[in-house]
Amino acid sequence: MKSVYKIGGMPPDQISMMHRCGQYFGSHGYTHEWFDLLGVDGQEMEITKSLSFLASLGIPLGNWIMCYPYGCYPYSAVDDNLRSVLTRHGCALALTDHGGAANLDQDDKYMLRRIDTNELPIC
């Protein structure tokens, strides 16, 4: 059976075309669950299914980036279970919903802040 899973409402053929045109795709989970509310089995399933879907579209998974649904861990550190799952699956880094610029020399690679485009001034 052909996958009907979509990213942001886009069907798989559009995602594949965007990738071929240079768009980067990382993981945002499979069902957009709050990762900090899932147990290790749920976190594993969310990441495994998401990466399997991306791989089925020909998207390379070496050093992929996680962007936690809902920011995931806005007030605490990533726990050892999620860190293990991310590491085992080759995650290079993970983005939270903390505003601001990340310092790659000092910040936890699985808790990086980011600047949301909604926070940028419109000229």
Question: How would you portray this structure in words?
Answer:
With 123 residues, the protein is an alpha/beta fold. It has one domain (24-115): Glycoside hydrolase/deacetylase (TIM Barrel), CATH 3.20.20.370. Helices cover 28% and strands 13% of the residues. The chain has three helices and three strands; from the N terminus they run H-H-E-H-E-E. Strands 1-2-3 form a three-stranded parallel sheet. Helix 3 links the parallel strand 1 and strand 2. The longest helix has 17 residues, at 40-56.
Describe the structure using short key phrases.
alpha/beta; TIM Barrel; 123 residues; globular; three-stranded parallel sheet
Question: How do you describe this structure in short?
Answer:
This protein is an alpha/beta fold. The chain has a single domain (24-115), classed as TIM Barrel, CATH 3.20.20.370.
Judging from the principal axes of the Cα atoms, what is the shape?
globular
Strand content: 5-15%
Could you give me the name of the CATH homologous superfamily? Glycoside hydrolase/deacetylase
Give the CA-CA distance, first to last residue.
48 Å
The topology string of helices and strands comes to HHEHEE
Using only C-alpha atoms, the radius of gyration works out to: 15 Å
CATH topology: TIM Barrel
Helix content: 25-40%
Name of the CATH first level: Alpha Beta
Structural class: alpha/beta
Count of individual beta strands: 3
Q: How many domains in all?
A: 1
Largest sheet: 3 strands, parallel
* Proper CATH architecture: Alpha-Beta Barrel
